[in-house]
Specification:
335 residues, TIM Barrel, 8-stranded parallel beta sheet, 13 helices, 8 strands, 11% strand, globular
Length: 335
């Protein structure tokens, strides 16, 4: 079931109350989207499918046109999420790492309508890595104004400098209060720096701090006056135990990209290595081996298990169908 912004907010608030997190996967292809939905169905967990600017512009979606990319990406997620096999899986579509001159145009489309049917993104965030604090606040407030002016619902994740070590509580208060005071009710996720970084790290993340997560979550809840959890970026370098502890400390969304890409690419490499002989054009099984279905089926066999394990570590298993039963039907996904 494709979740509306209101339904997404309800799910994230439930995660904060019940101490579980939703896995958010940067999906590079329609096949990756399907695999994530299969994993979520298998363990009865909600899932977030998210796209960054590079996915929206990629060959699989926008082919250089990010505005076309968000329309195609959201439509594919919605098509699968509201189909029979996945109707009991809570599915969110999230905009992740959107930056540059097209930021407002892309996110406006996600807020208002990505297609003629009025489909919107479930949750919205922008990439603040190249913004000052005041620029970050101004852009977030502009997105809220766009939602208000278009009578559109909006559920926001706000980022700080995720790759810049530990975000201070003073900086967190400055950012959160500036948005909440001017546009109360929109924030559902807070993504400060907690000692992780995007990508792999040979030395691990020695600054990673569940104590800092707890402090940041408590501050966000104090400022907003509601159940709000943290979005954890840079999770690929963390152990299962660290992820589980992060959830206990207040994380409700865990981004997963680098390790996900590594898992899919390693499976693809193995497939081509094992089938090198069959990929000769004169081989009797050439077509079956060379077709995309052969590769993607092989990738799925190992990748889906990785996704399932991640969802179990985040304690989201068993939360899916019950949420769908309680919080409306798939018809509610359109505003």
């Amino acid at each position: 079931m494709y979740l509306s912004p209101e339904q997404s907010r309800q799910l994230l608030e439930q995660a904060a109350r019940e101490h579980f997190a939703v896995l958010a996967v940067n999906a590079d292809s329609p096949a990756a989207i399907v695999d994530c939905l299969e994993a979520a169905k298998a363990v009865d967990a909600p899932v977030i499918i998210e796209s960054s600017l590079w996915q929206l512009s990629s060959h699989s979606f926008g082919n250089g046109d990010a505005l076309l990319g968000i329309e195609r990406f959201a439509a594919i997620v919605e098509l699968y999420a509201n189909s029979g096999p996945y109707i009991d899986v809570p599915v969110l579509y999230h905009t992740d790492h959107i930056k540059g001159p097209q930021t407002v145009d892309i996110l406006s489309k996600g807020i208002c309508a990505v297609n003629a049917q009025g489909l919107t993104a479930s949750t919205i965030s922008l990439d603040s890595s190249e913004l000052s604090a005041d620029e970050n606040i101004a852009l977030i407030n502009e997105l809220c104004s766009i939602a208000k002016n278009n009578n559109a619902s909006l559920t926001l994740e706000m980022e700080a400098g995720v790759d810049d070590g530990l975000t201070s509580l003073d900086e967190a208060r400055y950012l959160l209060e500036a948005v909440e005071e001017n546009n109360p009710g929109y924030l559902a996720l807070w993504a400060p720096g907690v000692g992780t970084r995007h990508g792999f790290s040979a030395e691990g993340f020695p600054e990673f701090s569940t104590e800092h997560i707890s402090r940041q979550q408590a501050l966000a809840a104090e400022i907003t006056g509601r159940d709000i959890g943290l979005a954890l970026h840079g999770s690929s370098g963390l152990s299962d135990e660290q992820l589980s502890d992060a959830v206990d400390a207040g994380v409700t969304k865990v981004n997963w990209s680098t390790d996900s890409l590594a898992a899919r690419s390693a499976a693809a490499l193995s497939y081509y290595d094992m089938n090198r002989e069959k990929l000769q054009r004169t081989h009797t099984d050439f077509k079956n081996t060379a077709m995309d279905n052969g590769l993607q089926t092989a990738v799925s066999e190992s990748y889906i298990d990785r996704v399932k394990n991640r969802m179990l570590v985040l304690k989201g298993n068993g939360k899916g169908q019950a949420f769908c039963n309680t919080h409306g039907t798939n018809a509610d996904c359109l505003n």
